[in-house]
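Here is the promised in-class demo. Please do not try to memorize the tokens; focus on the logic of going from shape to residues.
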């Protein structure tokens, strides 16, 4: 077969030349399989936040070893909270989660928090060193909990309430887990609890940085702006969500901190009851993890704002009703009430975080979440210390009644805020 010569007419070829390839537009970088992101985040959050109440679970053992008064439990809890507040303020001012890779910030914080938690096991440690280490553990937890929510928001714009429901549920379960560890290792030295929780935090931080890169919706803030954390508070919807969260936080951690105290007080008044305090503390606090998942799923149908409002109102009613139930002397009523309270007291937590994340400026979302956490946890110190002080004047059944102030003010702030479609969409 012979090829024929192509003839040209003027400057036009008889057959056109091959069309050059069209350059491809830049594409978004490839991300890992989305189904693995949320489970990895949840497990990492659970492992790392087990550090939070590791000191509380062994506080009676430490107090006995160091010859400290029973009120030392509240002091130990406040040390962690104060560290967390200082950490969140530092992270917010420096905008670390917005300027740098959130996954790397999470991992570094997990490793440092685990080291501080493990330091409690040092031989010859005193009360001052113990409180300092718990303070530092709380400081580095500021790079775990709010940064984990930031990572979730960078991946899941749709269905954020459901995602944060699982994530905050992991926090709740991690918070309760040291009590279960203590119940399971009752015959072993208390150092096993702090050692185990530190090992879990190491695993969680490492897994997150290896398996969860920065999300597709992340907008990195490249410049340091010390006032970036104030940007969200200029928006009425953001302020309403934040004030609702503050009212919720006034109640939450004080309830968690005093659950073992209330159970121990019941055992003291009714010696025949012999309630297993560590195990019941784990179950009452841990049931909140299911509530967070359930409220997140429910928000898919009803929206985060209505569900959060209902949960906050129910937990406020529990505060008001607490003297009647805690003073009744009925084991069944006591445990049923505490389990119900354990559900509603935290069911609104992921939904407030969802509302805060949605109404925060995109470029400072991580900083906004962090500063709201900072202010909320500052309230927990005041609440815990006030409740501890009132314990000298009030009988145990009346101890948690003043917590009703938080949900009441939170509801006022939430209901006075301006509604937006994001408050009712999934």
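The designed amino acids, position by position:
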């Amino acid at each position: 077969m012979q090829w024929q010569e192509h003839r040209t007419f003027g400057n036009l070829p008889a057959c056109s030349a091959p069309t050059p390839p069209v350059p491809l537009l830049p594409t978004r970088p490839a991300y890992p399989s989305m189904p693995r992101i949320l489970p990895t985040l949840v497990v990492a959050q659970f492992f790392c936040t087990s550090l939070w109440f590791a000191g509380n679970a062994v506080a009676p053992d430490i107090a006995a070893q160091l010859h400290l008064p029973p009120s030392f439990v509240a002091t130990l809890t406040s040390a962690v909270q104060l560290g967390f507040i200082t950490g969140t303020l530092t992270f917010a001012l420096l905008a670390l989660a917005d300027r740098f890779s959130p996954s790397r910030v999470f991992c570094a914080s997990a490793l440092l928090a685990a080291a501080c938690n493990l330091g409690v096991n040092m031989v010859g440690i005193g009360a001052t060193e113990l409180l300092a280490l718990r303070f530092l553990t709380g400081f580095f937890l500021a790079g775990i909990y709010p940064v984990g929510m930031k990572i979730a928001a960078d991946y899941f714009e749709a269905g954020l309430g459901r995602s944060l429901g699982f994530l905050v549920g992991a926090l709740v379960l991690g918070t309760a887990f040291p009590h279960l560890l203590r119940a399971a290792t009752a015959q072993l030295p208390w150092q096993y609890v702090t050692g185990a929780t530190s090992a879990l935090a190491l695993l969680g931080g490492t897994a997150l940085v290896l398996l969860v890169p920065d999300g597709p919706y992340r907008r990195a803030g490249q410049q340091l702006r010390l006032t970036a954390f104030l940007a969200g508070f200029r928006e009425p919807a953001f302020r309403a969500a934040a004030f609702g969260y503050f009212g919720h936080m006034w109640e939450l951690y004080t309830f968690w901190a005093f659950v073992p105290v209330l159970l121990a007080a019941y055992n003291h008044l009714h010696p025949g009851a012999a309630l297993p305090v560590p195990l019941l503390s784990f179950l009452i606090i841990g049931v909140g993890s299911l509530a967070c998942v359930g409220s997140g799923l429910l928000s898919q149908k009803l929206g985060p704002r209505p569900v959060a409002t209902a949960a906050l109102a129910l937990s406020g009613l529990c505060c008001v009703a607490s003297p009647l139930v805690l003073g009744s002397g009925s084991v069944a009523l006591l445990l049923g009430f505490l389990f119900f309270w354990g559900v509603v007291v935290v069911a609104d937590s992921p939904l407030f975080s969802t509302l805060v994340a949605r109404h925060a400026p995109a470029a400072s979302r991580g900083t906004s979440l962090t500063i709201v956490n900072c202010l909320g946890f500052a309230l927990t110190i005041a609440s815990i210390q006030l409740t501890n002080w009132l314990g000298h004047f009030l009988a145990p059944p009346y101890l948690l009644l003043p917590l009703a102030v938080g949900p009441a003010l939170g509801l006022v702030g939430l209901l006075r805020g301006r509604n937006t479609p994001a408050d009712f969409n999934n």
